[in-house]
């Protein structure tokens, strides 16, 4: 099986730190929020890519994403929109101070108080890569790694978080985020202490295909999943999932990936909890998952 480019945590963290250290103002992540903060929610996704033009074309053709350059002079940041809604951002890796290829997706998790959050990360055995840094309208951000090296960003938004959506999302929306861990029990304890997640364990699949799966929740709502990494050569990492309406649509998307410059890393397979899932990489090699999700399903059914 062709593998996605998994980045060593130390190298990825160094580059993310350089991004966070740039002093400029980014738009807030909530377009229609009510000012509330939803700690523990993944509120944003950023993509580091060494092929920005090809990446624009790839996701634009594949999922209808739109890319908007910010009117901030020489700022190395592009908004990603889907059906007019801002869903993430893109950074041109070629303009970062490195010659290494570190293309990857990065999850951004909401926290109520970023200073307290980074202190909790350190106390729980994680690493604080960058101290809290202001991004103007967006709020204050810090880059951290958990106790096994998985890198993420913590964001205290200035004007509140995106509200929890209704259960219906559209194809191409971010649906779910999952931590692939070398030691799920240790990771569970870390995220309980550092982020304040409550956890619920599930047994998915049957027979020899059983998988221990943990749902990470805050405010009574599922926020992310935690599972053992599927292969020992994959370092602990966060993986993001995009919603696809049904198996037919998933097959159509996968049939166009390679012609658009991407790769199908894992073909569509059945999920232990039902439905279908696949893993693809864009032109830069940054991996992302596609998961079928019907309008009748709820986030409480989330899983691998």
From TrEMBL:
| Entry-linked InterPro entries | Anthracycline_SecMetBiosynth, Glyas_Bleomycin-R_OHBP_Dase, Glyas_Fos-R_dOase_dom, Glyoxalase_6, VOC_core
Record keywords, A-Z: Signal
Q: Which PANTHER family match?
A: GB|AAF24581.1 (PTHR33993:SF14), GLYOXALASE-RELATED (PTHR33993)
Q: Which Pfam families match?
A: Glyoxalase, Glyoxalase_6
Q: What is the lineage of its organism?
A: Bacteria, Pseudomonadati, Pseudomonadota, Gammaproteobacteria, Cellvibrionales
Signal peptide position in this chain? Answer: 1-30
Residue span(s) of domain VOC: 173-293
Q: Can you say what this protein is called? A: VOC family protein
Q: Which SUPFAM superfamilies match?
A: Glyoxalase/Bleomycin resistance protein/Dihydroxybiphenyl dioxygenase
Q: Which Gene3D superfamilies does this UniProt record tie to the protein? A: 2,3-Dihydroxybiphenyl 1,2-Dioxygenase, domain 1
